[in-house]
């Protein structure tokens, strides 16, 4: 994101509150992703065994079998160009592939066109990536504890903003002086995590995020935002101590009523029984509101659709118990999100109508805060793999 001044009126844009951000991972090919690790190991073995690897790699202007880019932060360096690859599968890392869809990635820069090393270098146990989608999207902002793919923000027009500028979670990606200004106006202590939770709770359009001066409204927004972040990250961030994975209360928890077949060919919702049907398999209860979110269909399709071409012909051998467990985790999360939908809608309306800090109240973020943090102790991608100073 290039430097720019804040606009003189109206609520500030998300880019003025969290100055540093950019697109998610752009792999340039889809075979590097899979819902299960074993699928990627089989694909890599097929690639390494091939004499002519170009048709399997699907070369682009950014990556060919002769490319030797620098390693991703936190991952071992490639042993050589892909044309001479004979080794085991590179490191596999879980990524936020799409909204609420966690998949595995071959974390090897030789097969990922645009890996976004600046996002990888700030990964940590406290990091949360905020994905801002285009205005009017049903999910204007999403959170993930995993590095997001560009599909997570819908491609062009979206943006990923990490909460922290460092992997330890000590340097927030927040406009300088903003937290202190909010604390002064609200008359209550404010930390960067509170602001982050507020943004998640009230953002309906990333171009304008209302900042209330009402401490009661602020407290309600921060509490709701923390609950939303815990759900978006499947309990990995901002959850209450000891809570673990998000779970519905007893009586509403989905269970497998009929086992999912090895190859479910039809997926639908049965409103009469409140069931999710995957072929002859049945999971219930699943409210119609969860199905209507439109998130289950692409998640299941990514795990059941027919094989593609090249390495994509190597798919999951069969629907596994691990996939069923992940699906049930997702059903818990989506049902709990639907429970909060009316609360969030009311809060957003109240925040938009209440007196708010204007963009003119904020100092323009310094240009340096809009750039990735400077790191000098690792190599970054550049000619010969030398460090890029930013």
Short note summarizing the structure:
With 390 residues, the chain is α+β, with helices and mostly antiparallel strands. It has ten helices and ten strands. The protein has two domains: 14-244 and 345-385, no CATH class; 255-306 and 319-340, no CATH class.
| Average residue-wise pLDDT | 90
Could you tell me the strand content as a percent range?
Answer: 5-15%
| Terminal-residue CA separation | 13 Å
Number of strands: 10
Helix proportion: 25-40%
Strand order in the largest sheet: 7-10-9-8
**N-to-C SSE string, H for helix and E for strand:** HEHHEEHEEEHHHEEEEHHH
- What's the tally of helices? 10
Q: List unreliable stretches of 5+ residues.
A: 1-8, 376-390
- Gross morphology is globular
Number of folding domains? 2
Largest sheet: 4 strands, antiparallel
**What class do helices, strands and sheet pairing give?**
alpha+beta
Give the radius of gyration: 22 Å
